Amino acid sequence: MELSKPAIIGGTPVRKKPFPRYNTIGDEEKKVVMEILDTGVLSEFYGSNVDRFWGGKYVRSLEKQWTEFFDVKHSLSFNSATSGLIAAVGALGIGPGDEVIVSPYTMSASGTSILFYNAIPVFVDIEDDYFCIDADKIEKSITPHTKAIIAVHLFGQPADMTSIMEIARKHDLSVIEDAAQSPGAMQKNRYTGTIGDIGVFSLNCHKAIQTGEGGMCVTNNPELAKRLALIRNHAEAVIAGGMEVKDPANMIGYNFRMTEIQAAIAEKQLDKLEAINSDRQHYAEYVNRELEGIDGIQTPKVRAACTHVYYNYAVLTDPEKLGLPRDLMTRALQAEGIPVWSGYVQPLYSYPVFQQKGIYGDKECPFH
Questions:
Q1: 113: nearest Cα among 78, 144, 141
Q2: Cβ neighbour number for residue 318 with a 10 Å cutoff
């Protein structure tokens, strides 16, 4: 069969129309947003120690639904998953000089959230096949200063939580799950985000379910839930309002609160999560079949006893077998109308913020 001329050198693109923008918003979201707008009440948070410290009707309804769906004891909404990660690090009491082990192959907030409390990210390399932190390499990076591990479930693939939790228990470490890209993915019949001490989910504009911006934290520990809530909402209730915590460390709060509109949209979106993930898995299986047998392309592998929800469909390419470098292949596919990109090209430790080691002031704080 004669091959057509590639679009990158002037041929006709395979895809005549651009792929439609990802959109799971429907009539149910539009209806509830209009109901909220008609009330004029877009947020009901107070910072002080009163009932509205916990937010309004729709925030509480979302948190209740999230708790039931993921089978956890506590769910707390945030204005982003980045805020949730910062709050999670703070809630665990991590502070100056402490070390937190994290993957270098992830979105920047997985690493920078650690810096907010003058703690130090320690990067441990990823697995060759699954792109998550390599549990076999974690222990050699543990020091007397190590306080926690952040396990990132990248692209919708669960990290090896069985091994990570065994290591954490052995060394008395806390575990944060960055489940921003994996809502609904499971390992051994447990949802990602519900296995460690705190799980963090993202609801931003291109996630599986989305509210524009937004995030959720889950935990089974009531003290951690209280600390997360305080960091989310100014912590005034500790400073002046009498809401006691066992340890006042890191109880300088932010405004990480979710609005009523975001919460209402999220609740409607959560109703669709299983169907959304099922569609993604169906599409991934189709692409797997179509790419099967092409030398130089490795389709996504799925960890044993896990489900993959394919936030991204990530393939490995072999430039020698394919006969062209990755970046050129990416540009050629884009020219054909296929929306592809070249992954997290740089590991986090190569970013200037970590190379220069001067985050606060001019004293190399917190690294020195």
A1: 78
A2: 12
Q: How far apart are CA 78 and CA 202, in angstroms?
A: 9
For 215-244, what is each residue's pLDDT tens digit? Answer: 999 999 999 999 999 999 999 888 778 888
Q: Nearest 5°: phi and psi at 77?
A: -85, 150
The mean pLDDT of the chain is: 95
For residue 154, the SS3 value is helix
For residue 274, the tally of other CB atoms under 10 A from its CB is 11
Strands 99-102 and 120-123: parallel
Distance of CA 100 to the CA centre of its chain: 17
Record the tokens describing residue 143, joined without a space. 């020091």
Reduced to 3 states, what is the DSSP secondary structure of residue 48?
coil
pLDDT digits (tens, 9 = 90+) for 265-318: 999 999 999 999 999 999 999 999 999 989 999 999 999 999 999 999 999 999
Contact present, 216 and 77 (Cβ < 8 Å): yes
Residue in 216, 156, 164, 215 with CA at minimum distance from that of residue 186: 156
- Residues 149 and 156: their CA atoms lie apart, in Å, by 19
Please tell me which residue, 256 or 364, carries the higher pLDDT value: 256
Output the DSSP codes for 185-232: -EETTEETTSSSSEEEEE-STTSSS--SS-EEEEES-HHHHHHHHHHH
What average pLDDT does range 327-345 have in this prediction? 90
Predicted model pTM = 0.96
Reference 119, options 37, 70, 176; nearest CA is 176
The separation between CA 262 and the C-alpha centre of its own chain, rounded to angstroms, equals 18
Which residues lie closer than 8 Å to 144 by C-beta, 6 or more apart?
A: none
Core vs surface per residue 338-368: b (16+ CB within 10 A) or e? eeeeebbeebbeeeeebeeeebeeeeeebee
Distance CA 88, CA 79 (A): 14
